[in-house]
């Protein structure tokens, strides 16, 4: 999961680091931009904005060296600038406005990022899928899905299985690359009493990637009265932490040094510390069909399992894009097309020479229109299904427009 109770969209790689695969990163960028435009549509729609608690918030990224001197950060900034992200501004004025240490924080840029109250959003999404005919069943699956694929499809009268079980995929997908990332955030009262009310999200990204502990700074308004302050990302640790834990003390000191006017003792007395485990994976996010052959009694040449896990702290950032990918993979599985490894299907990494050529030909201009996938998702969000045939399905994720055929999927 992402940080508890709140979500701020990020362009990959995420602030918390732990990126280890370049081809998965390229796919994540595509999925992130699909999701960005969906959230932007929702924030612009008064009904959806209220139902899903979505808003566009100024987010400022700060750096201890000039961005032009850091090839990775320069590449990320240029990609965001050209991607269609709104409100891009490469400007250090925020350093002065916030009274930060000018000698330490020498560069910055700003974008408009979606911010979602995930408590409200998840509640609304649950009602939405139920209205569309999904049936939620509580149960447990405790072994490799492949060995029980046929039994599960038969038990739930499903046509395909979508495995979105997060850390559970260690077992359900027999994927030993899955691991937990422990994290926590302080919840401060952003009421203007102890420090000036903070309206922008303030971020310093982690510099460590891979299967290592990372530390970063983010100060993010969750809503009008609560401010989230973090953070750290610690692999393979699952124990809960308290306010006196060394990691929490360290993130508190870092935030205080970054923003001296911040009173980190002005905490929400009812809920001062939020924490959770992000479902990470060595090799990064996996959105692909099951590549192993099904058991002989399954009666099909290729498995009808589709995997979607390993998003770490970027689950909400990639949500709509990876869901769209899952939809197409389910369709391929139902057609019994040969499954393709995610790496083979991923967007190719564009070489620097190609980028320079595209820049000279003005081929990387900002897009003038929103993406069609975003429009399609907005239509889906506001138009619940009225088809009575879906009332017994576990979830509907695939529709053949020409034949008007509905398929049932088992989502885990």
Automatic annotation (TrEMBL):
One of the record's GO cellular component terms: cytoplasm
Segments of skewed composition (Polar residues): 383-397
Cofactor: FAD
GO biological process terms, semicolon-separated: D-amino acid catabolic process
Residue numbers spanned by region Disordered: 364-412
Residue ranges with Basic and acidic residues bias: 364-373
Limits of the FAD dependent oxidoreductase domain: 30-325
GO molecular function annotations of the record: D-amino-acid oxidase activity; FAD binding
Keywords: FAD, Flavoprotein, Oxidoreductase
Record-stated family: Belongs to the DAMOX/DASOX family.
Protein name per its UniProtKB record: D-aspartate oxidase
Organism of provenance: Trametes pubescens
